[in-house]
Design a protein that fits this description.
The protein is α+β, with helices and mostly antiparallel strands. The protein is built from 8 helices and 10 strands. About 30% of the residues lie in helices and about 25% in strands. Bound molecules: zinc ion.
Length: about 300
């Protein structure tokens, strides 16, 4: 499952590719699970939207859209949900006239802050490709862009979710770990009797810290995953916050070099990996003290730690 650094990297890659482009038409598949908002609402929000920005919020990829409603030549309903066979001809004929070179300046921004929110789930991918590129199996959405390219959402396991929000009101729960200040961070754990590992994974507290990065951050700050959050001192929490930031930033930096592979590929081979120090290294020697790394299960998730380095 893509974690925060992967989502950040993917969002940055998409921002480079599609910022400034305009969504001309939208095709949505028949499967219901990927659509968190009604299909008609997604199509109506996305069509004619100019992509002003693409960014990560928690583990979501958020497209900020400047909604250009066309004053004349209203979008025909048929272009909203196109059958793949009709797609190319109809979409091109309606949109090319609307977008004609300055001939009809009829775009009036009426809703500058609509948002398209994509959660990749386990296996979701966003592809930017040429229209003639073969449509992958499990493609659930195709956005035709003014530049001629297509933005496609592919998700074999269908845990990914597409939704829209109006007037920029989408707010992911929790606080961004890369933005939170120390006092706020400390206050998240005050009086919390749960294991620190569970608290780190709680998306209502911190946004987007997943299993791997929680284990790696706890190792770097010498804290055991089972340690009760409320017993951790201020100094240790400061160390933990620094470790979380360091781990996430390293992973984001690593991701920068492989992003083009990832966004365009059909497989996961472009996925980058942080050099894990404890995660998935059960029974292997700790990189600091050579003690075998232990694996325990907390709230159904594997946790890895060094019994000597982490207290
Ligand atoms: Zn150790």
């Amino acid at each position: 499952m893509p974690e925060l650094p992967e989502v950040e990297t993917i969002a940055r890659g998409l921002a480079k590719r599609v910022t400034g482009d305009t969504i001309e038409s939208v095709w949505l598949g028949q499967k219901k699970e990927p659509l968190k908002s009604p299909a008609s609402e997604i199509a109506a929000t996305l069509e004619h939207g100019r992509i002003a920005a693409v960014r990560r919020m928690g583990k979501n990829i958020v497209f900020d859209l400047e909604q250009n409603h066309v004053a004349r030549a209203p979008s025909p309903a048929k272009s909203r949900k196109l059958n793949r066979k009709q797609k190319s001809t109809q979409a091109l004929s309606t949109t090319q006239t609307e977008a004609g070179e300055g001939a009809r300046p009829t775009h009036i921004p009426t809703n500058p802050k609509a948002q398209w929110i994509v959660h990749l789930g386990m296996t979701g991918r966003l592809q930017v490709c040429e229209p003639e590129a073969e449509i992958a199996k499990h493609t659930h959405a195709i956005l035709k862009l003014k530049s001629g390219r297509e933005l496609r959402f592919v998700d074999p396991r269908r845990f990914g979710r597409l939704s829209v929000a109006q007037a920029g009101d989408f707010a992911a729960s929790g606080v961004e770990p890369l933005e939170i200040d120390l006092d706020r961070f400390i206050s998240l754990f005050r009086g919390r009797k749960t294991p620190i590992k569970s608290a780190l994974l709680n998306q209502n507290l911190l946004r987007g810290v997943g299993n791997i990065y929680a284990d790696e951050s706890l190792f770097r700050s010498n804290l055991r995953p089972r340690r009760r959050a409320s017993t951790i001192t201020r100094d240790q929490l400061e160390k933990l916050l620094l470790a979380i930031r360091e781990v996430l930033k390293e992973a984001i930096a690593l991701g920068g070099s492989s992003i083009s592979d990832y966004v365009n590929s059909d497989g996961e081979e472009g996925f980058f990996q942080l050099q894990h120090r404890v995660y998935a290294r059960e029974a292997e020697p700790c990189l600091v003290c050579k003690t075998p790394v232990k694996r325990i299960v907390i709230a159904g998730r594997s946790s890895h730690y060094c019994p000597k380095c982490q207290k």
